Each structure stands twice: as C-alpha cells, then as structure tokens.
C-alpha cells in the first residue's frame, strides 16, 4: 500500500511546487519525439485534457523536421522547445523540474534510455512513458523510474496488419474481470459467448462503430471458449490452400537472371548471323544440313579448313564466319563472367527465389515489419521480405526464421516480381517512406488486380484519398493506432485493449466515477451513447464486475465503469466522471471592528 501511495504523494508535491514557482496548478507533461507518434500523442492529450483546462504540454522536437510527416510542432496550445540533444540542459529548458510526466517517443531504444537517465538528474520522481522496440529493457527502466511504462507501438499495431493481410479481424485478446475476451465476427462465435457488438463492417465504404442496435453489429466482443480465433483459422486455411512450387519455372527464372539483357541480345543477334551465314555457306558448297552445321561450327570456332580451290562464294562465307567467330568468343567469355557475378549478387540479395504462391510479401523490415513477419511465421504462413538495405533491423530475425530477404527497391516491378507478388496472398507495405509504400502498392495491384494490399501511410487524410482513388481498401497508421495508449499511460490511465477497425480505433478502458461528478447520481443508462460509448460492465467499489447490469441502477462515487468507446466519446465520458473543478479560494469578508 505504501508503494502504491508514493506516486500520488510525488504528484501532490509537484503540484505544490508548481504553485510556488509560477502559480500554475495545471499538470505539466513533456513529450519528446520527431515523428507522427508524437503528433498523435499530443493530439490525444489535447482532446482529453486541454478542454478541461487541466494540462500544459511542452513538446521537444529537433531543430529541423526530419521528414514531411507531422510531429506536432504546429499544434495550437503546445509549448515547443527545439533541441537536437535530450540532455539535462534541454530538459531544464522544457521545464521538466516539477513536471508530472515525460514521454520519450524516439525510435532509438538506447537513445531513449540515455534520455531517461538525463531526466532523472533533473526530476527524479515523475511519470515516465518510453517507446521501445525491445520491451525486454522494461525492467531496467522500471529500476530507474518506478512509476513508468514501456510501450511498443510496433507490437500494438502489428496484429492489425497481420489480420488485414489474412482477411480477418484484428486478433485482439484481453483479460478483464476474470474473463478472457476477444474480437471476432458474429458468425464465428456462439450466441451465448457474445458480450456486445462492436461494429457493422458489411459496407466497407461506411463502417458503423458501436451501432445503436447491438444486433446490427457483425463484429463483436466475445468470451473465449477454447476455439481458435479468426486470424489463426485464416492462417490454417491459407496453409492448406498453398499450391506446390513449380521447379521448371524456378529453372527458367534462374537462367533468365544469369546475364544482363544487353549481353543476351548481343549473343542472340550474333548467333542468328552465324546461322544465316552457315546456311548460305552450306548452300554454296552443296552440303546437306548436318555437314553444313559441322562446317559452320568448325569454321566459326576454330577458323580452320582454308582451301584456295573453293568457289568465291564459299571463300567469302568462310571469311565472314571466321570474323563472327572472333566476336563470339569474347561474348561467350562475357556471358560466363557476367553470369557468375550476377548469380553471386542475386544469391546475396535474394533475387534468385523459387516461384511461390499463397505467401505474404512484407515490404520493410523496420520495427513494424519485423513484428508483422514474426507473427505471420508464428501462424505458419510463408513470408518473403523486401528491404532496401542488406542488414535491416529485422534481418537477423528473418535469417533465424528462414524468411527469404530480397534486397532491393520495392517501388520497382522487378523487385516485386522476384518475390512472386503475382501469386501471393497479400502484400503488406510497412516501410517508413510513404512514396515508396504507395508505389509498391500500386505496382503490386497492377501485377495482380485481386491482390490484398495492406498499406502503411503516415498521413491519415492522404490515406483516405488513396483508398477512394485507387480502391486500396486497407491502409493503416501505426502512430494513430498506438497514440491513445501512450497518452493514457502518461496520464496513468490503464487502457485495457485497443480494437482497430479499419482506420478507426476503439478503446476498452475502466473509468472511475468521482464524487460530485456529472455522472454521480445518474442511472447507468446515461453512460452509453450510440456510435460513441458502450457499457460493458459495472462494479461498486470493492466488488466484482457485473457484466449484465441493470440500466436503471444509480451510479455512485467510487463506481467503476468498463466501457468500449471511440476516442471522442471516451474523452467526454472521462470529463463527466471527473471531479468538479475547484472554485478559486476567495478571502473571507473582513468584519467591521466594534
């Protein structure tokens, strides 16, 4: 109990320090990042807290933007500090001393760890949220900051990409109140196992989240009863449907990649010339086709058989064939040398690959691509990976899993063809370059019009336009899917689960009702709102969850509400459950002296 109370005491001390220093009683959070995750985390904080006037946000960004994606420096109501190094000087400029929380959102595990150590010198006790790819470092971070959370946006977003590639719903599982729940299609679960409806996805152009009529939802939250979830079933079907590899096609592809196109054309043209001259020579010498072939080969390759008694036509053909032979020998040498070099390069880059079908092609082995590749392999799905660099972040894991890695630009058709994109089940494009991602998706769709494309785009508005213009039905922003979990961790609010539905995200969380709040004294029916918030369970203070509460039950202070909600709906519910703002203390009127 004492350990749990220490963070609350620390926050109370910091609040008192803020009042003494600058008279500002608002909670202060410092966010350090340089990409879209920082942008979406700041937006989530602004939507949650700024309207209530309870938060002040300082964003630390590099001097110059590192890419075209937003990083939050242009958002209104945010203090921006520009610095390329996260050290004690930068943290003091950002006002970290006395702050309530710090979010380190750079894509550098070691750099974030170093920044956490520097932050400890400025403010030993604060809420710390760290973005890390290697979550195994979490224990080390907690030793430094007991009140901390280590999150991986790649781990949060990868299941959504995997499910989209397999044509299923995201494999979201969570345990709450003694029950294991997961998201599934209504047709795949028994009616008694359904807890509540989540979304109506039958019209892909107009997905309805949390519809008013719960029975209209084809996507539901269900209680696990031991049957495999939809994604695992889809992986099993994919393995059964995979066709056998064709060895003849593999041989032809290897021969085709043996030499460059220019050398191949030169050899073909020269052989055609030799064939024509050999035929004319045989015709002039009145030889049959077998003797003509023999004379042509001997004359071309050795230059032998000089004979001054031959006719003029035979002598001319013999001289020309000797000249052609002089050109053929170097070309043969060039083909051999070029073929050996190309073969070694192709083997190193993975371009000599057997023809495949029914597999999944993953473009980009960064943080997200590595997680997607690993989860697909866990399901037993065959994967081919593509990356521009020979040693990407997930290269070592790909070798351990036996996943072929093709080194090349996915925006080129030949690179995608080497991965057998024409026969693959899905193309998952998750590199960090929007332009390359879009080109790879369009080329893949051109090669295979029925191809399932899972596209990662950082700009949400751009993604929506791409979906409408090119008919690419699935495009997801990793940062958007993970941002609310990071912001909730910074505010010390537990997000039980995040449910991705298309480009939307639903949140499962538990809300505590404060005394004197807007919800205090109202019936449970006031919690739910169509297409915004749905109540899953209710519990009195110190009691177990009731998964089928009476809507007429009156809410009292200390009640816990488990809800699934959209972001805007959850923000509104949190404000209604929060304590009322304290009135400013006014001095008592002075009594007249008697």
TrEMBL record:
<feature type="region of interest" description="Disordered">
    <location>
        <begin position="575"/>
        <end position="594"/>
    </location>
</feature>
<feature type="domain" description="RCK C-terminal">
    <location>
        <begin position="496"/>
        <end position="579"/>
    </location>
</feature>
<keyword id="KW-0812">Transmembrane</keyword>
<dbReference type="InterPro" id="IPR003148">
    <property type="entry name" value="RCK_N"/>
</dbReference>
<dbReference type="Pfam" id="PF02080">
    <property type="entry name" value="TrkA_C"/>
</dbReference>
<feature type="transmembrane region" description="Helical">
    <location>
        <begin position="319"/>
        <end position="341"/>
    </location>
</feature>
<feature type="transmembrane region" description="Helical">
    <location>
        <begin position="263"/>
        <end position="284"/>
    </location>
</feature>
<dbReference type="InterPro" id="IPR036291">
    <property type="entry name" value="NAD(P)-bd_dom_sf"/>
</dbReference>
<dbReference type="InterPro" id="IPR036721">
    <property type="entry name" value="RCK_C_sf"/>
</dbReference>
<dbReference type="InterPro" id="IPR006037">
    <property type="entry name" value="RCK_C"/>
</dbReference>
<dbReference type="Pfam" id="PF02254">
    <property type="entry name" value="TrkA_N"/>
</dbReference>
<feature type="compositionally biased region" description="Pro residues">
    <location>
        <begin position="578"/>
        <end position="594"/>
    </location>
</feature>
<keyword id="KW-1133">Transmembrane helix</keyword>
<protein>
    <submittedName>
        <fullName>NAD-binding protein</fullName>
    </submittedName>
</protein>
<keyword id="KW-0472">Membrane</keyword>
<feature type="domain" description="RCK N-terminal">
    <location>
        <begin position="357"/>
        <end position="478"/>
    </location>
</feature>
<dbReference type="InterPro" id="IPR050721">
    <property type="entry name" value="Trk_Ktr_HKT_K-transport"/>
</dbReference>
């Amino acid at each position: 109990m004492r350990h749990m109370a220490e963070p609350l005491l620390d926050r109370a001390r910091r609040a008192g320090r803020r009042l003494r220093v600058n008279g500002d009683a608002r909670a202060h959070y410092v966010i350090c990042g340089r990409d879209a995750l920082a942008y979406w985390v700041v937006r989530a904080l602004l939507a949650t807290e700024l309207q209530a006037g309870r938060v002040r946000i300082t964003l630390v960004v590099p001097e110059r933007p590192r890419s075209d994606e937003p990083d939050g420096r242009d958002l209104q109501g945010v203090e921006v500090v520009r610095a390329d190094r996260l050290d004690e000087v930068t943290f003091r400029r950002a006002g970290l001393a006395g702050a309530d929380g710090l979010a380190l959102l750079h894509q550098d595990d070691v750099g974030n760890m170093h920044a956490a150590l520097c932050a400890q010198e400025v403010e030993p006790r604060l809420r710390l949220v760290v973005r890390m790819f290697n979550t195994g470092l979490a224990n080390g971070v907690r030793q430094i900051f007991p009140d901390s959370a280590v999150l991986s946006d790649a781990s949060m977003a990868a299941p959504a990409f995997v499910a989209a590639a397999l044509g299923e719903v995201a494999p979201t599982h969570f345990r709450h109140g003694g029950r294991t729940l997961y998201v599934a299609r209504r047709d795949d679960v028994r009616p008694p196992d359904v807890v509540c409806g989540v979304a109506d996805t039958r019209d892909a152009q107009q997905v309805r989240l949390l519809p008013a009529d719960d029975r209209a939802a084809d996507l539901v939250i269900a209680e696990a009863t031991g049957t495999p979830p939809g994604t695992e079933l889809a992986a099993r079907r994919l393995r059964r449907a995979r066709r056998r590899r064709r060895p003849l096609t593999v041989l032809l592809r290897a021969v085709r990649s043996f030499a460059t196109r220019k050398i191949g054309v030169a050899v073909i043209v020269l052989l055609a010339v030799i064939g024509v001259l050999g035929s004319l020579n045989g015709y002039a010498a009145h030889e049959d086709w077998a003797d003509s072939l023999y004379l042509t080969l001997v004359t071309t390759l050795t230059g032998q058989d000089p004979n001054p008694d031959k006719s003029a036509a035979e002598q001319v053909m013999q001289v020309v064939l000797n000249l052609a032979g002089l050109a053929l020998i170097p070309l043969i040498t060039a083909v051999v040398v070029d073929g050996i070099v190309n073969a070694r390069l192709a083997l190193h880059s993975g371009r000599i690959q057997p023809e495949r079908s029914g597999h999944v092609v993953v473009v980009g082995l960064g943080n997200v691509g590595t997680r997607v590749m690993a989860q697909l392999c866990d399901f037993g799905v065959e994967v081919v990976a593509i990356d521009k660099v020979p040693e990407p972040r997930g290269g070592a894991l790909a070798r351990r899993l036996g996943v072929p890695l093709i080194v090349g630009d996915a925006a080129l058709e030949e690179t995608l063809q080497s991965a057998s994109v024409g026969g693959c089940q899905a193309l998952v494009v998750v590199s960090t370059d929007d332009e390359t991602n879009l080109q790879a998706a369009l080329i893949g769709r051109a090669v295979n019009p029925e191809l399932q494309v899972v596209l990662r785009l950082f700009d949400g508005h751009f993604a929506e336009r791409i979906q409408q213009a090119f008919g690419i039905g699935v495009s997801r922003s990793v940062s958007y899917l993970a941002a609310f979990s990071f912001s909730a961790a910074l505010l010390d609010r537990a997000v039980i689960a995040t449910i991705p539905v298309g480009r939307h995200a639903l949140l499962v969380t538990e809300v505590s009702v404060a005394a004197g709040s807007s919800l205090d004294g109202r019936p449970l029916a006031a919690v739910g709102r169509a297409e915004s918030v749905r109540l899953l369970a209710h519990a009195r203070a110190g009691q177990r969850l009731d998964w089928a509460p009476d809507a007429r039950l009156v809410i009292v202070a200390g009640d816990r509400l488990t809800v699934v909600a959209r972001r805007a709906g959850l923000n509104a519910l949190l404000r209604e459950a929060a304590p009322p703002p304290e009135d400013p203390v006014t001095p008592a009127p002075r009594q007249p002296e008697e």
